[in-house]
Specification:
- It is a single chain.
- Helix content is about 45%, strand content about 15%.
- It is an alpha/beta fold and about 240 residues long.
- It has one domain: P-loop containing nucleotide triphosphate hydrolases (Rossmann fold), CATH 3.40.50.
- The strands form 2 sheets. It has a 5-stranded parallel beta sheet with strand order 2-3-1-4-7, with helices on both faces. Strands 5-6 form a two-stranded antiparallel sheet.
- Helix 2 crosses helix 9, helix 3 crosses helix 4 and helix 5 packs parallel to helix 6.
- It is globular.
- Bound molecules: BIS(adenosine)-5'-pentaphosphate.
- BIS(adenosine)-5'-pentaphosphate binds next to helix 2, helix 3, helix 4, strand 6 and helix 9.
- The site of BIS(adenosine)-5'-pentaphosphate (AP5) has 34 residues, from helix 2, helix 3, helix 4, strand 6 and helix 9.
Length: about 240
């Protein structure tokens, strides 16, 4: 709301936001990392955790896609790697996370969704947090068999401006191809094809699985059964975080 003239904000919206902030003030701070292969449900569970604990949701994939769409210098550099299912360079993503964590909405902590994805990124994150005198509380590992992921990824539809995610079979919108809330059209991601998924999974096993070991050694990892239906995964997340 930084650039909004409060006179123009409807009273009901203002009161709702005040009530939300009041409730948030009694919630404990939390700094969480969500790790899992493409389609494991990180983006589906994040908004639920965010609302429950008043955290900011920092998804490097969403930030990079926004930069690609806006054709910023960062987006131009990231586009090719993303379309090929490869990881973007560590320096680029570390820079955007460092900047994003300073936002006021991250005051009570954060959910990192899709970061860190390499051991170098995890080490850089440790340095950043050490400088702020804080540390990661929990790493949620969305453990799932690769075989389940193709159907999830190729059936996914997204509302780009809100990040709302649908699935033709598992979470269909009320009207096919249309966002439930705004009525705007849904899109499919360029990298959500079976062929690119194969490469994204290779990158996950080679570069991101070692990050799970990195945090396991610190005793921070909680394993989730991410193959279960979304609501059951939410219950597991609640248990881990309570
Ligand atoms: P990113 O956007 O992070 O993609 P990802 O990690 O591949 O994860 P996804 O968004 O595909 O999956 P998700 O786990 O969020 O699944 P979702 O909840 O939507 O990264 C994209 C690219 O950006 C990377 O390839 C890389 O190039 C670059 N990048 C990003 N971060 C980077 C970094 N740190 N370093 C370097 N490069 C980086 O679920 C999928 C579908 O399944 C949905 O349709 C959903 O409705 C459905 N679904 C979800 N849960 C369930 C369930 N339990 N049961 C049934 N269906 C379900």
């Amino acid at each position: 709301m930084a650039n909004t003239n409060l006179d123009d904000v409807p009273s009901l919206d203002l009161m709702t936001e005040l009530l939300r902030r009041f409730k948030c003030s009694s919630k404990p701070d939390k700094r969480l990392i969500l790790i899992g292969p493409p389609g494991s449900g990180k983006g589906t569970q994040s908004p639920i955790i965010k609302d429950e604990y008043c955290l900011c949701h920092l998804a490097t994939g969403d930030m990079l896609r926004a930069a690609v769409a806006a054709k910023t210098p960062l987006g131009v550099k990231a586009k090719e790697a993303m379309n090929k299912g490869e990881l973007v360079s560590d320096d680029l993503v570390v820079g955007i996370i460092d900047e994003a964590m300073k936002k006021p909405s991250c005051q009570k902590g954060f959910i990192l969704d899709g970061f860190p994805r390499t051991v170098v990124q995890a080490q850089k994150l440790d340095e950043m947090l050490q400088n702020q005198g804080v540390k990661v509380d929990k790493v949620l590992n969305f453990a799932i068999d690769d075989a389940i992921l193709e159907e999830r990824i190729t059936g996914r539809w997204i509302h780009p401006s809100s990040g709302r995610t649908y699935h033709t079979k598992f979470a269909p919108p009320k009207v096919l191809g249309v966002d439930d809330v705004t009525g705007e059209p849904l899109i499919q991601r360029k990298d959500d094809t079976a062929a690119v998924l194969k490469l994204r999974l290779e990158a996950f096993h080679k570069q991101t699985e070692p990050v799970i070991d990195y945090y396991s050694k610190k005793g921070l990892v909680a394993n989730l059964h991410a193959e279960k239906p979304p609501k059951e995964v939410t219950v597991e997340v609640e248990k881990v975080l309570s």
